[in-house]
Structure formats: C-alpha cells, structure tokens
C-alpha cells in the first residue's frame, strides 16, 4: 500500500548507485528491494518478526548471491555491496569496514499508536551515529485524518480498546508528529511532502485481514476478542465497498526529510 510513498521519496532523494541505505523496521523488505533495484546498497534491521525478516532475506539475498563474479577459483563470490538483513537493533547493523550510511529510512507510519514516537526517537538516536554527516533521514506518517478514508475504519481500534487506552492504542495523526520526533532525535528538518496511498482490497475479508496485519488493532483484540473486532471492522468497511465487491479507501500519507547534523 505504501509503494507510492517509497517511490516519491526515492525519486526526490535521487536514490541510486551512490546510496548506502539503512532501513529501520524493514519488515518484509519491500522498500529495500525497491531501493536495491535502483542500485542502492541496502541494509535492513528489525527486531519484531523473524518471519517477515525471513521473507526479506529471500527477496534480497538469494538474488544478490547469484551476481556475476568469481573468486579466482571459479566459484561465485558475494558482492561487497550485497544486501544485509539484520535481526536486532540499529547497533547490530554497524559494520566498521563499510562506509557510513547516506540514507536512513523509517517508513512505518509513526504517530498512529500511542507511545510509538518515543520508540522511534530512541531508534533514531541509535541509528544516526551510523550515518554520515548530512545524511538524509526519512520519517513517514499518516496525513490529515480528513484526507484519509481509512481513518473511519481505524476508529474502531480506538473504540474497542477503551477503557484500556495507553501504549499501543490507535490515535489520529497530528500535524507535527514527524517534526517532533526529528527534533527529539537531534535531526534538522529539510523538507516534506504528501503522497496519495490508496488502500485497495479484493473483498471485505481481504481488507479485514490486511488491516489486522498492521498491528493497529492489537490493543482492541486484547481488550475484546478477535470475533468482535472482525465484526465491527467489517461493518466499518461497508461504506468503502464498491459494487464489484472490492474495497477502496483513498488516503494521504506524509513524509519528512531530516538531516544528520
């Protein structure tokens, strides 16, 4: 769903052969794959899902290991700039033998869960020492609630999570969420943009599964039960269902470019 966001950022920053990118919270590695296809040397780091990291490795590493080149004995050698997928924290991605990163990305939308800004600021504080001076750091978040059709559906998460609201509960994005995180991480803002990222699903069932996979409804599931969340999600999606049964929700996402001082 966020492919338009990745494309807009990479185009604006001219990501290519001279880019060394560190992707924070890289998940299944799609953003890394797109950057690598433009010639960037990519490293992804995540600590949350071994299953998603395994998918990222399959996407990136198998192809890289088959790049032409021999070690003199006729066997294929790995490229020096081969993609890396690291399970752990940004410090685990440090490589003292490699040049500093020129781009750090945090594409997972921030500001939509209570407490996620604290986590991201801490993550950035540990990641930016690995980046070169002046390197770009990209943060992403939901756009204004009135510009995001999915907002009405996400409100189900907040309603069902009550009265246990706290860390991990959904909340609408605020105008200065990204700037506040950048400031706390000691970064210098250097431009921003908005990108249309519509959410489209083949049917309501697919939409429910897709939205639940984001983690935005985890607190609601914990406070009630999966069946209740599924039921209310299905009802909230009804206005977005088209005559052919597909679900379509136009959304606007925002990104901030900051610089390492």
Automatic annotation (TrEMBL):
Q: Which stretches does the entry tag as region Disordered?
A: 63-82
Task: Name the domain of life this protein comes from.
Answer: Bacteria
Protein name in UniProt: Methyltransferase type 11
């Amino acid at each position: 769903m966020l492919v338009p966001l990745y494309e807009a950022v990479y185009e604006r920053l001219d990501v290519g052969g001279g880019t060394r990118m560190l992707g924070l919270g890289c998940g299944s590695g799609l953003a890394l794959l797109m950057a690598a296809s433009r010639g960037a040397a990519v490293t992804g780091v995540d600590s949350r899902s071994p299953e998603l990291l395994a998918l990222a490795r399959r996407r990136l590493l198998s192809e890289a290991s088959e790049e032409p080149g021999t070690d003199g004995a006729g066997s294929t050698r790995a490229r020096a700039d081969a993609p890396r997928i690291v399970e752990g924290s940004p410090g685990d991605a440090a490589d003292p033998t490699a040049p500093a990163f020129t781009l750090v990305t945090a594409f997972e939308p921030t500001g939509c869960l209570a407490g996620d800004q604290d986590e991201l600021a801490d993550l950035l504080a540990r990641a930016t020492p690995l980046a070169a001076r002046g390197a770009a750091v990209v943060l992403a978040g939901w756009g204004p609630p009135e510009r995001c059709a999915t907002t009405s559906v996400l409100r189900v998460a907040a309603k069902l999570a009550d009265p246990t609201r706290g860390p991990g509960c959904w909340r609408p994005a605020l105008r200065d969420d990204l700037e506040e995180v950048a400031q706390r991480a000691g970064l210098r803002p250097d431009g921003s943009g908005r990108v249309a990222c519509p959410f489209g699903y083949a049917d309501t069932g697919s939409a429910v599964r897709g939205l639940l996979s984001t983690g935005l409804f985890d607190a609601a599931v914990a406070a009630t039960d999966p069946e209740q969340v599924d039921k209310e999600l299905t009802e909230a999606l009804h206005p977005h269902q088209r005559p052919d049964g597909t679900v379509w929700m136009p959304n606007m996402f925002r990104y901030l470019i900051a610089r390492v001082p």
